[in-house]
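Issue 218. Parser rejects a valid record. Input:
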Amino acid sequence: MKLNLRPKTEPEVNMTSLIDVVLLLLIFFMVSTSFVKQSQISIRLPEADSAAVVEDVPVQIDIMITEQGIYLVNNRELANSRPETIRNALRTVSGGDSNLPLTISADANARHQHVVTAMDIAGKLGFTRISIATINDPVEQ
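Output the parser choked on:
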């Protein structure tokens, strides 16, 4: 009996399918990748001078009235008690900001007219947050 021996064949890997899959992956990544170019703006910022002095605007304005009718605005005595002087002092101290709180405190022996004058001037300048300071007598507590 004569047996036909077949020659052994080496198994082959089909490369066509592998190439198709790799090309599909390449196309997928190319389409899904975003190519965004970051735009840059060149900004030239100003530099501050160290010699410049900025005057601080107070957080609160205090008007004190003594027994003699002398006005003190933020502990600085005014030259006279005329309404124009008080008005100019309030404008200067507030820097034109009428939203600042204003406190009026007067000596117990000061005339009522001096307090009313200070309130009137502050009201005409547009101050709405006006309060009158009082001192509790330690004997009554």
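Fixed in the parser; the record now loads. The mean pLDDT is 83.
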